[in-house]
Design brief:
Length: 232
């Protein structure tokens, strides 16, 4: 049975690369947005921004513990964050967190668009002006594209697919400069700011999209729930 949709929500987005390195995660709880650095190469950025630094595993267990204690639903866009829970939980027993509900908002958004926004969505131009075929496929239902159905749009420098390279540039520069953020070039600092903005948008967009779907039909969520450690 699906959980009570009115339960507290934790809106979540990890920033990782294909190899599984986690740079940071952002989340929103009770209207408060937080970012945590999980890559030690970015400690200078964390110090400059007054962010906590944790391992990806510690940040994950802290988040899951909060979700369990507060009877919260974890809301993310796609199944990626649930996969990261598994990846970053090898050092602790996940059984106590197995029943935490996980809402895949991408799946709910697909049903919402098909039922209530198909004409509007199909009339939208490609998210990028000249996408290559791979970009066109991956961006069609990406969060930044779907959010064009709301009043909350991605910033102009959102740049899908470039966040990892931006974070790697900043991490390499901080390592070379002994984590002295003030010594980075303006371009490197701009890349750090854009990467953090990207993550923040991906989190802040989630409650906006949730509310837009909910306003039309809360049944759009009915087949979009799993548990955090449920076998597929």
């Amino acid at each position: 049975m699906p959980p009570n949709i009115q339960s507290p929500h934790i809106y979540l987005d990890y920033e990782t690369n294909i190899a599984g390195n986690c740079y940071l995660l952002g989340y929103k709880i009770d209207g408060k947005f937080t970012q945590i650095i999980t890559d030690k190469r970015l400690e200078g950025l964390a110090e400059f921004r007054n962010f906590e630094v944790k391992t990806a595993e510690q940040a994950t267990i802290d988040l899951l513990t909060y979700a369990k204690d507060s009877d919260s639903i974890i809301v993310a866009y796609s199944e990626a964050e649930r996969d990261y829970f598994k990846r970053f939980s090898t050092g602790f027993d996940t059984n106590e967190f197995a029943d935490i509900p996980y809402l895949n908002l991408r799946k709910a958004a697909k049903r919402w668009i098909n039922c209530y926004r198909a004409i509007q969505f199909n009339a939208l131009p490609p998210y990028l002006q000249r996408p290559n075929p791979y970009q066109a496929r991956t961006l069609e239902r990406a969060l930044c594209s779907v959010m064009r159905l709301t009043s909350f749009h991605a910033p102009n420098d959102y740049a899908p697919g470039r966040t990892t390279s931006r974070l790697n540039t900043v991490a390499d520069a901080l390592v070379m400069r002994n984590q002295d953020y003030s010594s980075l070039t303006p371009t490197q600092k701009a890349k750090a700011t854009k990467a953090l903005k990207h993550n923040r948008f991906d989190v802040e967009a989630l409650p906006v999209l949730f509310n837009a779907i909910y306003a039309d039909d809360d049944q759009c969520f009915s087949n979009s729930f799993t548990n955090c450690f449920e076998d597929d």
